[in-house]
Amino acid sequence: MTKAILINYEYCTGCHSCEVACKKELGLPKGEFGIKLTETGPYAYEGKEGPERWEWTWLPVLTKACDMCASRTEAGKMPMCVQHCQAWCMYYGEAEDLVKKMGGETRWALYTK
Amino acid sequence: MIDYEEFLDGIDRKAYHEGEVEWEEDGCTVTRTYNYSAPGCHDSCGVLLYTKDGKLEKVEGDPLDPYANGKLCMRCLDLDEMVNHPQRLKYPMRRAGERGENKWERISWDEALDMIDTYIKEEIDGKGLGRESILVGHGTGRNINWQVPFIAGACFRTANVGGIYFSGWWCYMPRVCGAAGPLGDYPIVDASETLPERYAHSEWVRPDVLVVWGNEPLKSNGDGYLGHWLNVCVQMGTKVVSIDPVLTWWGARAEHWLRPRPGTDCCIALAWLNVIMGEDLIDHEFVDNWCAYYDELKEHVQQFSPAWAASITGVPEDEIVAAARLYASADRGAIQWGLVFDAGTRSSMHWVEAVCDLMAICGNIEKPGTHVLVHNSFDINAGYSSVDLYADPQALERKFRKWMVGDQGLDFVGMSNCDAMASVLEAGEVPATGEPYPIKMLWAQSCNAFAGHEGQVPRAYKYMKEIPFIVYADPFVTPTMVAIADLVLPVSMSVERDSARTWWTPLRAMKKVTSFYEAKSDEEIALWLGRRLNPDLFVRWESAEDLINDYLLTDLAVVGPDGKVQKANFSAATDDNWGHTSVTEDGGPSVTTKCPYTFDQLVEAGGHAYDEWNATYFKHEKGMLRPDGQVGFNTPSGRIELVPTIFQSWGIPPYPVYTPAPETWETTPEIMEKFPFYLINGARSYEFFHTEHRQAPTMREFHPEPRVKVSPGTAAEYGLQDGDWIWMENDEGRCKQMVEVFAGIPDDCLSAEHGWWKPEEEGAVPHLHGCFDYNVNNLTRNFQSGPGGIGSPIKCTRCRIYKVKDGDVMPGEQITQLGGWRDDYQPMQA
Q1: Into how many domains does chain B fold?
Q2: Is the peptide bond before A44 cis (omega within 30 degrees of 0)?
Q3: Looking at residue B36, what is its pLDDT?
Q4: Domain containing B120: what range?
Q5: By C-alpha distance, which of B11, B715, B124 is closest to B439?
Q6: Residue B27 falls in which region: left (phi positive, over 0), alpha (psi -120 to 50) or beta
Q7: Rg (Cα) of chain A, in Å, rounded?
Q8: Which of A36, B12, B187, B699 lies in disulfide reach of B687, CB 3.0 to 4.6 Å?
Q9: Are B780 and B794 a contacting pair, CB within 8 Å?
Q10: Ranges of chain A with pLDDT below 50
Q11: What is the pLDDT of residue B591?
């Protein structure tokens, strides 16, 4: 049984809610993060059109400080980042269950501890 | 992909205390309620407030709240830093030095009230002046939209509420009024927000195509609309068209990303009408049954070919056509519009009209997944119209109106005419008549005017500082207070006040969980002022809760001695005296709204109440839109008027046309050469709401400096790198921001942020926390509205750029010490 956080980062908007929610939960000072956004782009792919033209992608990374909100999940709550994800692209659960959500049409990342 | 029912099923409801309003947890008291500003935004999301020993410790989103589903933005998650901030205003203070010195002396609320009462009695009433010489200002969106106009009318007895240098009401009023012409009501994109069951509601379907036009809803969340609702739609399959010179999240995912030259978007709307009507891509059944003047509009738009639009907008003709076809081919199409319709064009009303027509001819009104026409829940509409209900009748007669500055037609905006206000302030008389009109006092509540909404801010500073008596009420000491206030009053934040508000749906209640020194809530300030200044009226309310209940149950209607309603608030320019409020033939019942709750009951019910009217689709087919109960729309003809007849009476040609911005390649090529960049200002950030949140350490960790986006081409040409500071300058003035090289912006555009000041920097003049140094409004202008005198082209002004050097004169110095950049301002002439 491996707990995991699954991110459908195709839809991440880079809104920073996960980062701030986590900082509040872990009490992290300036410069420290339990989850940290990465940003790729924006840049254009030559010769591509429509939604394939532009790359502008955010992907949150779980850091060493992340404990997947062990005390919260024990109490039945969601991890702070998952609960507050405004883009509805984060899921928490058993890794083997979450894997089944990855449908192959959009980009996903599965994080485990 | 999102499965909303799975999301709901996955919530451990016991862990989140379903059905409880308050409980103990980990040594904290937890309160389930809603947050509205201050500090804030246009929205009100469900929160769980954790307090300990009377102090706010933590904020979580409430997953059981259907409005935001617990998904809070970074600002609300960081609310504790604002609420507990050491720089908050704790007590009333009066100026101890000169204006601008930032020297203050603590006084009591009683002393403050004496100052205000004495000033009004001696300098206004005692000098034979009317109460119209008191101006009342407020900030946007935050939960003061019913309180401050009420304070203006009921306490100060003036009818003059508005932004002074807020030329053409360049926020929201153009869209609200413009849509009322053709549609009779206001449309919002249907992302299921009117339904308590949200995305799982059996009738709701996501839009097939969403056009995001000139705004970034994910960051702005404007007009009571959470942008991330639309992200959910995209995950459910909605295709995107982005119309915006700047790349956004939407543009990077769009089937078509159209990049019009700033100020020209109206041409695309007109060309889309041309394509969609010309190629007969319309919804025939809807047009036949529900629209008027189709043939007239079709003939009119024949002149607006895609080639014509391409030549003005710079968007290739085939892209204009392809995007129009995609929108029109959608069974369910939706258009998300934003501030640029009000502030980035001289064609506000006609652009709004054309876009409403695009909605209508494609049948995208009142159908799930398109646009729903909305009212404020339970017909609770108190707002600007409260001013007219309660102001002194003579002051109401002298309310700032468009005729005073020579604009034609009936007034159709509830707020005082901002251009008349500014012009009278500058001239000391009514431009149309030469009649003296002295301005003696400004009361401003929760608006950091110079850092925020005052356009052409050097001019605003020059004339506003001449107002003899100025009172500001705000949670923080702002640079605007430092610059011009004589008396400052501490205001409670949302978590420190009981309150309630509708902005569409649902109705929401905010429950007080803590307090801060001597700060009073906006409702308490109304009572504090009113009991002294208008005691006869204020016997009606013993407590803030009484006032809130009156808002909920009578919509703050004027009530006669018999307890019957005498006059009610209206919600739209097309309403009669009774507005949407229910009244009986014999003069009205004592309770008039449809609100089922008192404040306490609303809190106990979980803090929100959805309104059945808003939650109903196809209202036009059910006789729900018209006061007479007939099917159809709330327009004179009962149909959607594709050429709105009411525009004529408002002084606006009813056929939509493109009115160019003051500076264009077609009309002023020499200015375009001299100032080679479009300055698109007002770029939103996740970290801030307008001028707010600059004090919060965590927000500044993420966003330490004001940023201006420049293209890689421009960066190469000017030798700029990320982190360089540049001046943006035109004939009005200049401001500086930090360069962010950004691939998603055209070479001839800059996208700069607004609302900047630095609470950590020197407050006294000349610096004023830098509120002038970073201020894009040093470059904007007033009095440039298009037809109807509404809307302003301030987001498409022109400028040049160059690097900031050591020794440069800072704008704060230039404006406060050296007389600004201009000495030839002219008020509007009638």
Answers
A1: 4
A2: no
A3: 93
A4: 93-164+382-501+507-543
A5: B124
A6: left
A7: 15
A8: B699
A9: yes
A10: none
A11: 59
Which of A42, A86, A89 is the closest to B73 by Cβ? A86
Residue B539 lies in a domain: yes
- Residues B583, B592: contact at Cβ < 8 Å? yes
Residue of A nearest to B73 (CA): A17
Candidates B497, B492, B508; CA nearest to B34 is B508
Q: Where are the beta strands (DSSP E) in B397-496?
A: 441-445, 469-474, 487-490
Contacts of B232 in chain A (CB under 8 A): 88
pLDDT at B462: 98
What gap in Å lies between CA B126 and CA B577, rounded to an integer? 33
Residue B584: what pLDDT?
45
- Out of B70, B252, B698, the one facing A42 most closely (by C-beta) is B252
Residue B614, domain member (yes or no): no
- Provide the b/e sequence for B539-577 (b: ≥16 CB within 10 Å): eebeebeebbbbbbbbbbbebeeeebbebbbbbbbbbee
pLDDT recorded at residue B585: 46
Q: How far apart are the first and last CA of chain A?
A: 11
User: B-chain residues within 8 Å CB-CB of A103?
Assistant: 1
pLDDT on residue B112: 98
* CATH code for the domain of B10: 2.20.25.90
Map out the domains of chain A as residue ranges: 3-112
Say yes or no for a CB contact (<8 Å) between A54 and B15.
Answer: no
- Specify the CATH number for the domain of residue B686: 2.40.40.20
pLDDT for B47: 98
Q: What are the DSSP E strand ranges found in B265-361?
A: 291-292, 333-337
Interchain proximity A24–B252, CB inside 8 Å: no
Judgement on whether residues B192 and B328 belong to the same structural domain of the protein: yes
Per-residue confidence (pLDDT) for residue B560, from 0 to 100:
81
* Ranges in chain B, pLDDT < 50: 572-585
AA letter at B524: E
CATH classification (class only), A3-112:
alpha beta
Side-chain-side CA neighbours of A111 within 13 Å: the count stands at 21
Task: Based on the fold, state whether residues B400 and B435 are members of the same structural domain.
Answer: yes
Contact between B744 and A54 using a beta-carbon 8 Å cutoff? yes
Residue positions counted in chain A: 113
